Amino acid sequence: MADEQKWVYDFAEGSKDMRELLGGKGANVAEMTRVLGADRVPAGFTITTEACVAYMQAGQEEPDGMAAQVADALERLQEHTGKRLGDDDDPLLVSVRSGARESMPGMLDTVLNLGMNDTSVEGLAKATDNERFAWDSYRRFVQMFGNVSRGIDGEAFEQAIAEVKSDRGVEEDTELDTDALKELTDRFKALYSEHTGEDFPQDPQEQLRLAIRAVFDSWTGDRAREYRRINRIPDDWGTAVNVQQMVFGNKGDTSGSGVAFSRDEVTGAPEPSGDFLPNAQGEDVVSGARTPRDIAEMKDWLPDAYEQLMEILKTLEQHYGDMQDTEFTVEDGQLYMLQTRDAKRPAQAAVRFARDAVDEGLLDREQALMTVDADMLTALLVETFDPKADYEVIATGVPAAPGGAKGEVVFTAADAVSAADEGRAVVLVRPDTNANDVAGFHAAKGILTSLGGKASHAALVARGMGVPCVTAASELKISLEDKCIRVGDRTIGEGDFIAINGTNGEVTLDDVPLVDPKEDPAFDEILKAFETVLGWADDTRRLGVRTNADTPTDARKARELGAEGIGLCRTEHMFMAEDRQPKMRRMIMAGTREARKDALEQLLPLQQEDFEGLFEAMKGLPVTIRLLDPPLHEFLPDLPDLAAQVERARIECTDDLEELEELLETTERISEENPMLGTRGCRLGILYPEIYEMQVHAILRAAKAMDEPPHPEIMIPLVDYEHEIELMRELVVRIGNDEGLHEGEDYTVGTMIELPRACFVADRIAKFADFFSFGTNDLTQTALGFSRDDVESKFVPVYMEQKIIDRSPFETIDKPGVGWLVRLAAWVGREARPDLKLGICGEHGGDPDSIEFFHMAGLDYVSCSPFRVPIARVAAAQAAIIHAHDRSWADA
Ligand code: ADP
Ligand code: MG
Ligand code: MG
Fold first, then answer.
1. Residue 775 annotated as part of some ligand binding site
2. CATH class for the domain made up of 394-515
């Protein structure tokens, strides 16, 4: 027996650091027992998550030794409490509570009042001198046990309750008298037999065994699986089971139960918040059957218990160093704590708490920064539902991208685009989305899907763009064919009004007022706290934070949000504008160098203006400008269309036939099978140097036109071979000399690292580059051989389900693969050139996990979209805090 695995821990043996083994609930109940004392927390024991895993692996068999260890722990519990399960005098009752590593609200099962049977109900009545209470406890147990352990539909029990209430002419559950509760218990037992073909189990040991199994089984139930899939919780964690002595909130008017937060969980204001119900047990408070009362009212009801609770909330907050979310029960005026955990909180409460905690001396700045979920901070920059608004929720999904959005329902990206052109506000509603829908994301106020989850295409793209998004709203049945949404007995059609709250996942048909945090005085305090927290982040981080911006508007916005320069300006975006497209097309289609130069001549002043705008917006800060890396096909006419036009012109012998034929011929010549891997980046600069020459002229002339000299960094895209960058650098320097400017002083030249080969030969490339900027979008595509637009909605979700990957590599950098290439290039690049400046400008630059990696890889800065700048500032600070004591590879 000596080396038998330990499956069971008494609460007295556990601690908060054991959550992987004991689950969050078990670990924290153990911790509370130590911190608050054994008379505040009912005693009990925890069966480990490892036992659950072993049980699942063995095909629903309890592992060897578990039963005996449970029996021993139960014996100790009976000794400790002086009561015995099933006793006919003063019986012990226990709860059997699930508790995974991470909380999965409502997904796993809990059974209360275990140990009730025909004998112990009499014992309980005698011991408490409260017959009604004893029978109320018994009927609750039969109900929960039947539901959890044997899958009997909860509706069936509720139905019986409703019948008995109407028979007796009462409205509330609490008005049912002892006789009524006896009748209910009988009815429930009958339901149980009907459903299972067995009598309700009377042996408490048997009840316990079945309840533990039921909690284990709930881990693999459909509900829990689905929840894990959309919230990215691994299936193989398993749940722990907590067996705990019952305390009773349903014993009468000086008993009750409730939930309490150590601070307001919505606003972060320093007053505790919560709800309670007198004479209630367990889930009554959250079930909605009775309307709970505000925690402040508890003061009048039971002033002593209230004071104790307030004191305990403070103690727990101090102890955990974080805002707490607790569950409590009062039995005959005596307060018991049943659960505590770090409170989930929206961005506003997160920054408010962080700032206040430092002011109050609860945390130091670094600790406070670590309590903020950086990824959520965009919520403070977008419009949100008015927190005071009342509205009817028709469905709840996953809060995939924060903010509130409302407008008319549209079902296709094309409809979203045309509605937006007409100035109408729309919400794009689809079962799920793919690359073809992305234009609709720009046009819509918000995105709503019935499928997917936190990591689906819709969620990733919306988060990246700052568009509010709700995914996995599975109550909605969306028919693209009929262009309607069905939910319950309602049908919502195209053009109907809808509103979504991407901050909490709610969907409503009510016209909820939206508030802009910047303009609403209610947010003053929060925005002040936000500024303070960002200031601390800036003092803490080592990584610089820049932005990806192509327009002065974006640049100014990013600068307001704290960007320290532009890490990527994509010049091809400057040619997408309506008035420039034709000029750009003429340039691309030009048959001769002369014709091309002519077209470029017309583009030059426009480019120069663009750069002047950017330099102005980024006065005093570096601006990295990438020379043209065009997806050429985007500027070409549609080939099949054009072919059809030519065909028609031939038949009708129209005047423009010759012109059309020429156009077709050129288009066919330039068109590529695979434009992604075709004449892109510096390949274009080598084939048609006049294009880059024009751009460099435009950049440097813009620089010369400024009062205060800017810091242009000219970036050569898609370099594979050192000779490519060598040639392109010569070109830039030649134009620089023409313009009378000096490389290294007036401007610098570097390259975007976005091909695996470039990473391998980074030392050779570094000889010709002042800086590297990792283009991790393309680097991910080329290293993995994934075409982003094709894979994100097609197989990435399946890959995640099958556990081939746990994140989309376009969301979080693939550390062992693509990340290794980054490290390698940074390392050998710096070996060749110690002063090489290193940045990253892919979308990963705004992802907190990736930012931590880039910090470790020794990069100098990250660059991300404007409204992710605050996220990056905080995430960079957190990386610096987490790795403060690591030895950086650069020193090694
Ligand atoms: P969940 O994870 O769904 O919150 P819990 O295990 O926390 O489930 O149980 C739900 C509720 O049941 C608790 O909030 C508490 O009110 C009640 N409960 C659980 N265990 C006990 C107990 N030992 N004594 C009294 N009430 C309990
Ligand atoms: Mg629950
Ligand atoms: Mg709970």
1. yes
2. alpha beta
Taking alpha carbons only, the member of 12, 18, 15, 11 closest to residue 50 is 18
Helix (H), strand (E) at residue 584: helix 581-589
Task: Compute the mean pLDDT over every residue in the chain, rounded to the nearest whole number.
Answer: 92
Q: Residue 4: count other Cβ atoms within 10 Å of its Cβ.
A: 12
Q: Residue 626, annotated ligand binder?
A: yes
Q: Which atom of ligand 1 lies nearest, measured to the CA of 283?
A: 11
**Greater confidence, 97 or 885?**
97
Domain 256-345, what fold?
A: D-amino Acid Aminotransferase; Chain A, domain 1 (3.30.470)
In sequence order, the 6+-apart residues with CB closer than 8 A to the CB of 532 are 351, 355
Q: Fold for 541-631+672-882, please state it.
A: TIM Barrel (3.20.20)
Q: Is 72 annotated as ligand-binding?
A: no
Nearest CA to ligand 1 atom 16: 282
Ligand nearest to the CA of 337: 1
Closest residue to atom 20 of ligand 1, CA basis: 95
**Which is it for the CA torsion 732, 734, 735, 736, positive or negative?**
positive
CA-closest candidate to residue 719, choices 669, 788, 771: 771
Is residue 564 marked as binding? no
Which among 569, 759, 841, 864 is annotated as catalytic?
841
Nearest atom (ligand 1) to Cα of 244 = 23
458 pLDDT more than 90: no
For the question of residue 711 being annotated catalytic, the response is no
Structurally, what CATH architecture does the domain formed by 75-245 represent? Up-down Bundle (1.20)
Burial 319-357 (b: 16+ CB within 10 A, else e): bbebbbbbbbbbbeebbbbbbbbbbebbbbbbbbbbbbb
Backbone angles phi, psi at 83, to 5 degrees: -130, 160
- Judged by its nearest atom, the ligand closest to the C-alpha of residue 259 is 1
457 is catalytic: yes
What pLDDT is attached to residue 889? 47
- H-run or E-run covering 53: helix 49-57
Q: Which of 457, 697, 711, 855 is catalytic?
A: 457
Ion ligand 2: protein residues whose beta carbon lies under 5 Å: 106
Give percent of the chain with pLDDT exceeding 70. Answer: 98
891 confidence band (pLDDT: 50, 70, 90): very low
Task: Out of 160-174, 301-315, 611-625, 831-845, pick the least confident.
Answer: 160-174
